Each structure stands twice: as C-alpha cells, then as structure tokens.
Amino acid sequence: MLPPLLVLDPLLENWLREDLGRGDRTTQAIFFGHAKIGQASWIAKEAGVIAGLPVAERVFQLLNPTIHFTPTVAEGEFCPKSKVIAEIEGSLDALLIGERVALNLAMRLSGIASATRQYVQKIADLSTRLVDTRKTTPGLRILEKYASGIGGAINHRLGLDDAIMIKDNHIQAAGSIEEAVRRVRQNMPYPLTIEVETSQLEEVNQALQQQVEIIMLDNMDLEMMQTAVEMIRNFNSKTKIEASGNITLDRIRNVAETGVDYISTSAPITRSTWLDISMRID
Q1: Where does the record place the Quinolinate phosphoribosyl transferase C-terminal domain (predicted)?
Q2: pLDDT, average across residues 87-94
Q3: Are 177 and 171 spatial neighbours (Cβ–Cβ below 8 Å)?
Q4: Rounded-to-integer distance, Cα 8 and Cα 55, Å
Q5: Looking at the domain 120-269, which fold is it?
Q6: 17 part of the active site
Q7: Is 218 a catalytic residue?
C-alpha cells in the first residue's frame, strides 16, 4: 500500500523542487497573469500494468489542490497500447509544471509492476510466492516496492530494521552461523524473526540446528536446492524456505517446483524498463 501523506508528500515536494528550480520559465511566461483552466489526457503508449496513478494525482494536487485527476483504469490493471488511463482537469500551468515529475513516477512504477506481473504469472498456480529485495533506487524504495506489490509480489523487508537477515558477510565477520545467531538472539527485540543465508548443505544443517525461522537457499543449483528443501521439511516443517540468486523468467518455475515457500529476486525492479506514457492537452 502507499505510504501516508506525511511520508509521501516530502518526497514529492523534493522532486518537484528539483525539477522546478527557480521556476518554469516556459510555462510561467506563457501564463503570466492569465490563469487558464484546461483538460489533459494520459495515454499508455505501450501495453502494460498501470501503477502509480495515486502518486501522480498527489503530484498535481500539491501544485494546485483544485485539480481533478480521474483515473479511467484501475491501479494494477493491464492496459493495451493507446488506452487513455487518466483524465485531468484544472489550471493548465499546474498541469504543465507537474507533468514530468508525475509521468516519470508513473512510468517507472508501471514498468516495475509490468515486469513483476510476468514473474508472478510464471508461478501463479503454485504455492510459492514472489518476493522483492532491498535492491532499489535510493529515495524511491518505498514507491518501487509499492509497484512490486501492485504487480503481485510480496514485499521483503523495506529496511534493515524490519527483520534479522544473517548473510554470508555477517557469518564471516562473526566466525560461524552458530555464533552469529547467538549474538543476534542476545540483542534482537521481540518479535523480529531470524533468516539465515546458506549456499551449501552443511550451512543449511547449521541453520537448522539453530532453529531459525527462515532459511535462504542462495545461488544453489536445482538438485542441491531440492535436497535442501527435503532436509528442512524433515527437520522442521514450520521453517520457511526462501530461494534467491539467478532467478530468471526461464528458471523461476523450476525453482518454485522444488517446494520453496518464497522466491526473492531484484530483477523486476533492477531490470525493468519504464512503461511509456504521454500527456496530451485537449
């Protein structure tokens, strides 16, 4: 879901200030002293999943609260090329000043949602769920993860304070999985969970002995992953299993069929392209 306005507005205001600078020389010169009401349409120039319309609406309302932004499609709907996805009415100077920031955000978020939907559809009939990661654009994480959710994925932790994840470098620094988990349990607040990253079967066994809640199988081949899943299920059926690393559209279904609970990948965010959307003044 979208963050509350208390969180969202400062982000949008900063991005508007970045674009506006000391003023929109073109728009303000044309409309200087002559406020004019007009209409505009947003058109999808390629097919894809639409995301970010509420964000775009807020961009325009920050510039002029009387602007009416009316989506003609639902958030998360797959739209064909050339479809009108929103109608806007209000002060033309605000529409033109906010156009680029609003479009940039909607195109970025729609691109992520579209790519995420492709991954989700590959495993839609299985119980495994797609999970995003913290590999996001600085400053945009909360919106990029929103778009990932619109596309059908589950958000992994949004920040380092969301959950305990003991990765390979933590284990190396602590000396062992056992020692890393021991130190974490001495200092972690209730009710956080512990996830441990493993890449070998011996590491899986060590994580099981520590009775952690989630075990990540990182960059394992399918044969090793299948063996690891069986080990974990036989030891404790309540332990959640996450697969990660080298997750592609071609491979994701094979990974899901090993029986893991979650598959995490950054690809829908880091490798997605923007969905082209344009604004036309009517």
Answers
A1: 112-280
A2: 96
A3: yes
A4: 8
A5: TIM Barrel (3.20.20)
A6: no
A7: yes
What class, spelled out in words, does domain 3-118+272-279 have in CATH?
alpha beta
122 is catalytic: no
Active site includes 167? yes
pTM over 0.90: yes
Instruction: Please give the mean pLDDT across all residues of the chain.
Output: 97
Is residue 33 scored above 80 in pLDDT?
A: no
Catalytic residue among 75, 132, 144, 197: 197
**Active-site choice (17, 45, 81, 135):** 135
Every domain of the chain and the residues it spans? 3-118+272-279, 120-269
Catalytic residue among 19, 87, 100, 276: 100
Per residue in 54-73, pLDDT (tens digit) is: 999 999 999 999 999 999 99
Q: What are phi and psi of 52, to 5 degrees?
A: 100, 5
Q: In the predicted model, what is the mean pLDDT of residues 173-178?
A: 98
